[in-house]
Amino acid sequence: MATQEKTPVENAQLKDIISHAKEYGFIFPSSEIYDGLQAVYDYGQMGVELKNNIKNLWWKSMTQLNQNVVGLDAAIFMHPLVWKASGHVDSFNDPMIDNKDSKKRYRADVLIEEKAAQYENEGDKARGDALTAEMGKLLEAEDLDGVRELIIREDIKCPISGTANWTEVRQFNLMFSTQIGSVAEDSQTIYLRPETAQGIFVNFLNVQKTGRMKVPFGIAQIGKAFRNEIVARQFIFRMREFEQMEMQFFVRPGTEMEWYEQWRDTRRKWHEAIGIPADKLRFHNHDKLAHYANAALDIEFQFPFGFKEVEGIHSRTDFDLTQHQELSRKKLQYFDNDLNEEGKPYGNYVPYVVETSVGADRLFLMVLCSAYQEEEITEGDSTKSRTFLKLHPALAPVKAAILPLTKKDGLPEKATEIFEDLKYDFNMIYEERDSIGKRYTRQDLIGTPFCIAVDHQTLEDNTVTVRDRDTREQVRMPISELKSYIDKAVNFKSIFAKLT
């Protein structure tokens, strides 16, 4: 069995974030007691709350805020011809190259992209752009020898061995296959889906007819996908088992670019609304388009290891529905009544598709990297460092912590009463161990926006002290106001308001 590969950490900040994620229950290496499994991770008790909040926000942003977008949950196993129609069986490959000295395998295109990023960081963006453009032409022409020559010409070395002793470049299919059937001789090869989009396409008519949907309309889905990645690096950025959040928006042919631009702007605004700084985001237009697209771009975030894709916006034309229609011999067309109202004849057509596809795990990593803060604070005559997660309150795993000042004098009982009242509305923590300062620190480290201290004055006038995570400021308020105070900060409405 493959073990968790020990690769060099590209950046000291990323190393700190990875360590923090494990120590405070966000991300664990999978099967760690057996030395792990390469490129597979488990979400811990804090991580699963944060990830669920991210997914829930995305889902509501798509389906609740848009009357013409509905949801779907398609099966992971699909008929193998689905992947023949989509092109994955024949062309879902990555170019791989091995270093003969380190025995490590790399994606050839990623090595070249990282070299281009190095040029850009050194102030020579033109050289970096020229390099990626040249690589794109070579890959489009399937000139793998040319790709290898490009790597050697640019003096790209293996980060492990430090040498440029490379093998030839080969194509590597990324799909996992398995067998289905009760006995071996009757079994059939099927695939673990490498993307969630095809489940939407094959259900296009089911959703359209049962939901009486009119073009334009969208179908959203969150689900697991699987890719046998050649190289797994950069923590959860590139994994073999991951989660996608995709929405396929079906439009009338000829209107796709209008919708492409609208969803491009809408999705960037969404990332900024959850607290991602605008200067940490950028659009990257594709020079080399996928076989199904007539326009494509990435929304990239500046991770500690550079700008990398978080979300893709693609105009997929009618490729997918047409392919499935031809191979299945079932019509996947839409009868557009509205054409007649516009003075055009009624007609059937295969809709064009605009896609937004975001990786839930990459989005999680982006949120975590953006939230991770280290600062120097002064308390009295001393200065000390402080680490905290500046998560948007709506995404924070825990919304508030109830902290009795002491474990006696009736304070735990009063604190428990407050906790019991609020736990039905918010994910809460009750804690009474250690000093109040240490408890504040622990909550800062997991990103809890509010700490509610219950002291002796609480027993007298039913007021508590509420500490803000980001400013560390404390305010006194009645217990009766806690629910509305917390809700104002953590409700998704605070994000939705920025999207309209």
Automatic annotation (TrEMBL):
Entry binding sites for substrate: 107, 195, 242-246, 355-359
Binding residue positions for ATP: 227-229, 237-242, 309-310, 359-362
Keyword DNA-binding in record: no
InterPro entries the record matches: aa-tRNA-synt_IIb, aa-tRNA-synth_II, aa-tRNA-synth_II/BPL/LPL, Anticodon-bd, Anticodon-bd_dom_sf, Gly-tRNA_synthase/POLG2, Gly_tRNA_ligase_bac, GlyRS-like_core
One MF term in the entry's GO annotations: bis(5'-nucleosyl)-tetraphosphatase (asymmetrical) activity
Source organism, top-level taxon: Bacteria
Compartment annotation: Cytoplasm
Ranges of residues in domain Aminoacyl-transfer RNA synthetases class-II family profile: 131-397
A Gene Ontology cellular-component term: extracellular exosome
Name of the protein this chain belongs to: Glycine--tRNA ligase
Enzyme class (EC, first level): ligase
